[in-house]
Amino acid sequence: MFDKNLAKPIPLLQAEALERRIKIDHEKMPEIKKEIKILTSGYNGEKELNYQMRQIPQHKYHIFHDLRLPVGETFFQIDVLLLSPNILVNLDGKNHSGKITIEKNQMIQETFDKREIYENPVSQTNRHKILLRN
């Protein structure tokens, strides 16, 4: 059962609205288009995860998309939380292209024209595990 459905992220909606409202030759347009591309890629990854979640028995699980949970004075975000009386599963979708290398402290994405460094997704999941326990 989907207790919290997937919705288009507010930052993506905001970036798309901004793109529609400013002039096509505005100096910030390339930056806005890049941000939309990144946010859309993430959203598409979450939609794929959502599709996969629809394949499991709905009556056995509670499914929560895009949770923002408090921890102390701040928050952390989980893409999908799968919950049943017997198990709690934290799912985090990644939607990257190119060559992906996961090292101890980072994930490296290499495409033909750039190299991006991200947090190691295993470390991120382990941190979420600790935060969920708290």
Topology (elements, then pairings):
Layout: E1 2-4, H1 10-21, H2 29-53, E2 62-71, E3 74-83, E4 88-91, E5 99-102, E6 106-110, E7 115-119, H3 121-133
Parallel strand pairs: 1-2
Antiparallel strand pairs: 2-3, 3-4, 5-6, 6-7
Helix pairs in contact: 1-2
Q: Give the proportion of residues in helices.
A: 25-40%
Radius of gyration from CA coordinates: 17 Å
Regarding quaternary structure, how should these chains be classified? single chain
Number of domains: 2
- CA(first)-CA(last) distance: 25 Å
Number of strands: 7
User: What is the ordering of alpha helices and beta strands?
Assistant: EHHEEEEEEH
Shape: globular
Helix count, per DSSP? 3
Strand residue percentage: 25-35%
Mean pLDDT across residues: 89
Largest sheet: 4 strands, mixed
Widest beta sheet: strand line-up: 1-2-3-4
Low-confidence stretches: none
State the gist of this model.
It contains three helices and seven strands. The protein has 134 residues and is of the alpha+beta class. The chain folds into two domains: 2-85, no CATH class; 96-134, no CATH class.
Task: Please give a structural write-up.
- With 134 residues, the chain is α+β, with helices and mostly antiparallel strands.
- It is 37% helix and 31% strand.
- The strands form 2 sheets. A 4-stranded mixed beta sheet has the order 1-2-3-4, sandwiched between helices. A 3-stranded antiparallel beta sheet has the order 5-6-7.
- A hairpin with a 3-residue loop joins strand 5 (99-102) and strand 6.
- Helix 1 packs antiparallel against helix 2 (29-53).
- The two termini are 25 Å apart.
